[in-house]
Amino acid sequence: MKSIMRILIAVCGLALAGQAAAVDAKAAEALAQKSGCLACHTVANKVIGPAYRDVAAKYRGEKTAEAKLIAKVKSGGKGVWGPIPMPPNSPQIADDDIKTIVQWILTL
């Protein structure tokens, strides 16, 4: 009986963790929208800048991806995804918000 209870508790914990992650993803996407990121990017399709799923795929498994992308969002960049440069987003977007958005992108 104790084993069954432990299994049920573990399953409920995983279900709640999944719901929390979904809420965080929604909050991060809303933050990206509020910050103006979705004017040039979408999750699934290239607009002016690359699709966020393409960014996540390019940097998947790279240990320095988060720091690299945070720096790129802050300072801007050009040449990696084509000839149109990305303007710098600092100081108009707070560092913590940039980090949240980048972490979300890397989960896609």
Q: What this model shows, in words?
A:
It is a single chain. The protein is mostly helical and 108 residues long. It has one domain: Orthogonal Bundle (Cytochrome Bc1 Complex, Chain D, domain 2), CATH 1.10.760.10. The protein contains four helices and no strands. Helix 1 crosses helix 4 and helix 3 packs across helix 4. It is globular, with a radius of gyration of 17 Å. 13% of the residues are buried.
In short:
This protein has 4 helices and no strands.
Task: Give the topology, please.
Elements: H1 2-34, H2 52-59, H3 65-75, H4 95-107
Helix pairs in contact: 1-4, 3-4
The residue fraction in helices comes out at 55-70%
Terminal Cα span: 39 Å
Q: Total domains, how many?
A: 1
Classified in CATH, the superfamily is: Cytochrome c-like domain
CATH topology: the name is Cytochrome Bc1 Complex, Chain D, domain 2
Low-pLDDT segments, ≥5 res? 3-21
The value of Rg in angstroms is 17 Å
Total DSSP E strands? 0
Major sheet size, sense and barrel closure: none
Order of secondary-structure elements:
HHHH
Backbone shape: globular
CATH class: Mainly Alpha
Structural class: mainly alpha
Total of DSSP H or I helical runs spanning 4+ residues: 4
Question: Which CATH architecture?
Answer: Orthogonal Bundle
Offer a few descriptive terms.
single chain, 108 residues, mainly alpha, Cytochrome Bc1 Complex, Chain D, domain 2, 4 helices, globular
